[in-house]
Design brief:
Number of strands: 8
Helix content: 10-25%
Radius of gyration: 15 Å
Low-confidence stretches: none
Shape: globular
Number of helices: 3
Mean pLDDT: 89
Distance between the termini: 40 Å
Largest sheet: 8 strands, mixed
CATH architecture: Roll
Structural class: alpha+beta
Length: 167
């Protein structure tokens, strides 16, 4: 298990370096992120803010809806496979409608994980920083990923993850 976690860390580091990402600390609240800047949270999530949203913050028990452009296995990308998985066409999630966003209830951790969708803890963490309609790119370690990613120790990159609605 320890070897798999070390491999995961190396894969994330390679992905980060091969894309020339630049770390920013502290979180840049007073300006937009540059195109290659990523903020790393204490639990290992890398966040790049494309758009911080409309200013409306998620509140306890809000239903938060999420969509994303695509995701990629970081281990696969650093090995040369650049396959992009467009939800819901990802093989694990084929039973979901392409027209429905995924959702979770903010403040109810039992809704942050599902075996039938990629909903994960990593999608909750940025809500501390951004609002509704925010658009992000995320580098997600398996410990914060979906049930499937966590089980297989697969770090994932999400492109243009958007919080589409809080209610």
């Amino acid at each position: 298990m320890q070897e798999l976690l070390q491999e995961e860390k190396k894969s994330i580091d390679r992905f980060y370096n091969m894309n020339n990402f630049i770390p920013v600390k502290p979180y840049p609240r007073d300006r937009n992120f540059e195109s290659n800047e990523y903020f790393r949270t204490d639990d290992g999530l890398f966040i790049h803010v494309v758009d911080s949203g409309n200013g409306k913050k998620a509140k306890y028990l809000n239903d938060v809806s999420v969509r994303y452009e695509y995701c990629q296995s970081i281990k696969a990308v650093v090995s040369g496979d650049t396959t992009k998985y467009y939800y819901p066409l990802h093989p694990v999630y084929l039973n979901n409608s392409p027209y429905l966003p995924m959702s979770f209830v903010y403040g109810i951790s039992a809704t942050y994980s599902s075996y039938s969708t990629p909903v994960c803890q990593a999608w909750v963490i940025p809500l501390f920083y951004v609002g509704e309609e925010a658009v992000l790119d995320l580098i997600v370690p398996s410990s914060l990923g979906s049930s499937s990613d966590n089980t297989s120790i697969t770090p994932v990159f999400y492109k243009n993850l958007r919080y589409t609605r809080f209610n």
